[in-house]
Design goal:
disordered C terminus; 439 residues; TIM Barrel; alpha/beta
Length: 439
């Protein structure tokens, strides 16, 4: 057993350091085969969420969805240990479209590392891996809608092929508040979300119903309303092909922002979260539309009192902060990363920003450039930082009332071994031709 654990650590370190895609795919297949053999299955959380929407699973907890931007293998092991100790089967590993870029973690790498962590820690059952904020760029969409939608479809193909069976579509960037009524404001949002949902349904493996999320309000903008929620879902359902399963959850805006609001000294301002909106929209989503409920973004920098009305909360920035600010993280490496940020991200510094504010907001961009340096840190450093964060994971799971849900997850989720097709290669121009309408 000890030899196997040691080999997995070495295998994954080598895997992360490899640049050659074909070599990565070979190792990824080896890890996936090992996962299936142990009883670890990349899975969709859709059936669990639909059971919650029907009232078969009590809505008294939130599913933590964790974006691991760095030290992914070590932090994933810490999450798995927390889940095992607390009998929590309802948790998600996720990475956003933007994070895939600036952290240098491709979908196949992210899935493989998360599965390897589950294997190493002796976990059994479904592992939910999610594409967070598969976001439509508003400017690029206006310039060339077909090309921008084709780019998202390319990412969907790559993600599903890797084992992302949960995808959050973010077309809320297309909401136009200058329009005279809510339906016109939300029209592009629900139409594009329906189109991408249809594409996911045609792309997903046989036997897998990918869990899809939509979004009605862009994070950091105006708070969402029940009328917007109703308008979006009705328009979305009218736009979606009738035999396709729709979204299982909906992201809303309630006063948060990604990464929090940074004060001049680099500390985070207290967030005024709209708990009434969370409760009201949660009730509408479940009781009127049978969804699991709303999703709360920007949650890792919220005050430590929790609100369990939401179906899912997204946690990212604080984990990154705790890595950077750990006394175990080498100062020499941190200084080099900060120098890189000052040289390569200077155009992101806003007028009036202090150096602390600028570094706090931009330091996520250095994680990909220094991924290999961080990966090569001695195991006692990586393991020590992960141990520090494990206490935070335990706290968050308890705050969200997530422990003790594994039995309910196991009752609703059917483990499905996916037989890998010949790799689906779809050129961008082919996807662009599929941009308008479902066939």
């Amino acid at each position: 057993m000890g030899r196997r654990a040691f080999d997995m650590d070495k295998l994954i370190q080598d895997f992360v350091l490899i640049d050659d895609l074909e070599s990565k795919r070979r190792i990824a297949k080896k890890v996936l085969d090992m996962a299936y053999k142990q009883g670890v299955y990349p899975s969709s959380i859709n059936d669990f969420y639909m059971a919650r929407g029907r009232g078969e699973v009590p809505p008294d907890f939130c599913v933590p969805a964790m974006n691991l931007r760095t030290l992914t293998y070590d932090l994933a092991k810490a999450v798995i240990r927390t889940a095992k100790k607390s009998n929590c089967g309802a948790f998600i590993f996720e990475i956003a479209k933007s994070e895939i870029g600036y952290t240098g973690q491709s979908p196949v790498e992210y899935v493989t590392v998360c599965l390897a962590a589950a294997i190493k820690e002796g976990y059994k059952g479904p592992i939910f891996i999610q594409g967070d904020h598969f976001q439509v760029n508003e400017k690029k969409y206006k310039e060339n809608p077909g090309k921008e939608i084709g780019t998202i479809k390319n990412l969907i193909v790559e993600a599903i092929d890797a084992g992302f069976y949960n995808i959050d579509i973010d077309s809320s960037t297309l909401v136009d508040l200058s329009k005279p009524d809510i339906k016109k404001q939300q029209r592009l949002n629900f139409e594009v979300c329906a189109e991408l949902t249809g594409f996911i349904r045609r792309t997903q493996p046989k036997g897998i119903q990918v869990s899809v999320g939509g979004e009605i309000g862009e994070v950091g903008k105006k708070n969402s309303t029940a009328e917007e929620l109703r308008t979006f879902i009705q328009g979305y359902r009218d736009s979606l092909r009738k035999n396709y399963t729709g979204i299982s959850k909906i992201s809303i805006q309630t006063g948060t922002s990604h990464g929090g609001v940074v004060l001049p000294d680099g500390k985070i301002a207290e967030v005024k979260l709209d708990f009434d909106t969370l409760r009201d929209l949660s009730k509408v989503a479940r009781e009127e539309f049978g969804l699991a409920g709303p999703v709360q973004h920007g949650a890792s920098t919220l005050p430590e009192e929790a609100e369990t009305q939401t179906a899912e909360v997204h946690l990212a920035t604080e984990f990154q902060n705790r890595v950077y600010d750990s006394s175990l993280f080498p100062k020499e490496l941190k200084d080099r990363m900060y120098d890189w940020i000052r040289q390569n991200c200077a155009d992101e510094k806003k007028a009036g920003d202090t150096d602390d504010q600028f570094l706090y907001k931009a330091r996520k961009k250095a994680l990909g450039a220094f991924k290999k340096d961080i990966t090569k840190l001695p195991q006692e450093i990586k393991g020590g930082i992960a141990k520090e964060l494990e206490a935070k994971f335990e706290f968050l799971f308890k705050q969200l009332n997530a422990p003790g849900k594994k039995d309910e997850v196991d009752k609703t989720i059917t483990l499905k071994r996916v037989i890998k097709r010949k790799r689906l290669e779809q050129k961008e121009e082919e996807l662009v031709r599929d941009t308008h309408g479902d066939d």
